[in-house]
Amino acid sequence: MKPFSISESSPPAQIWNSAPQLDNIPVISIQSLVPEGARAVVIAPHPGDEVAIGGGLLQLLSNLGHPLQLISMTDGSASHPGSRQWSEKRLSVFRPQESVEALRRLGLPLHSLKWIRGGFSDSCLAERELQLVQFLLRYLRPGDVVFSTWCEDGNDDHDAVGRAGAKAAAMVGATFNEVPVWAWHWPKRDQSQFPWHRARKIRLDTWTVARKSHATHAYASQLNGEPGMGIAPMMPKVLLERMRLPYEIVFV
Matching InterPro entries, A to Z (predicted)? Predict the structure, then answer.
């Protein structure tokens, strides 16, 4: 599928706010998704994806005392090619700091959170898929419950990390769950391409949603584009609006 660009001019009829299947997705409890004592691992292609993948899920797991492992594959420094305000050098420092602040806003225990940075260059992860698998094999363990981006999300980096995560999890005997991120913003006409039979809904209470929404605003470099340079916001208003939904959805 041709990637769907998330922009301020995107039409309102996107999958996340118009697909009738959303109302019929079965609800799954955290206890069913992540067994007691199991370690949960979130693999984020770029800084900010950890909240988009499971800002609510991370809060619920932390409250239940599950050990958490966060793996950030890139530092996100190539998100603004040609930008005068956000050079790659500046973003390589700034974006990881934004992630720290976002996780603090989620209320996660940063002193005990296991956090691995992959150091891969973003925007070219599909070319290094084998290396991604080899890297992940160092950190995944049998019995882990892993969450990462859907392998058909519509973004090359997201797709590659989803494929690599699935391969590595299968090789070590971990459970792998996919999470659509960009795909929610495909046009309504593409909703038939979703694997709805695999979708499960995790309900979030008001405060969990509020903390998640607050966390997304920690990514200051992603909130405003540079119109003069033709650079759109990486986190446009329509994505921020979706972050306020009272649930998250995973493909099991």
Answer: GlcNAc_PI_deacetylase-related (IPR003737), LmbE-like_dom_sf (IPR024078)
Query: What are 182-205's pLDDT values in tens digits?
Result: 999 999 999 999 999 999 999 999
CATH number at residue 217: 3.40.50.10320
Does residue 8 form part of some domain?
no
> For residues 207 and 204, what is the distance between their CA atoms, to the nearest angstrom?
8
pTM, to two decimals? 0.93
Query: Is residue 1 included in any domain, yes or no?
Result: no
> By the 8 A CB rule, do 202 and 57 touch?
yes
Q: Measure the CA–CA gap between 83 and 224, rounded to whole angstroms.
A: 12
The token pair at 99 is 């992630």
CA distance 76 to 163: 19
CA dist 222 and 76 (Å) reads 10
CA angle 112, 113, 118 (to 5 degrees): 135
CA–CA gap between residue 181 and residue 153 (Å, rounded): 7
- Domain range enclosing 127: 15-77+86-251
Q: Is residue 4 part of a domain?
A: no
Is there a domain that residue 67 lies in? yes
Give the count of domains, the chain: 1
pLDDT digits (tens, 9 = 90+) for 16-55: 999 999 999 999 999 999 999 999 999 999 988 999 999 9
The Cβ of residue 159 has, within 10 Å, a number of other Cβ atoms equal to 22
CA distance 19 to 99: 31
Q: Which regions of the chain does DSSP assign to beta strands (E)?
A: 40-44, 68-74, 114-120, 145-149, 175-179, 199-203, 247-251
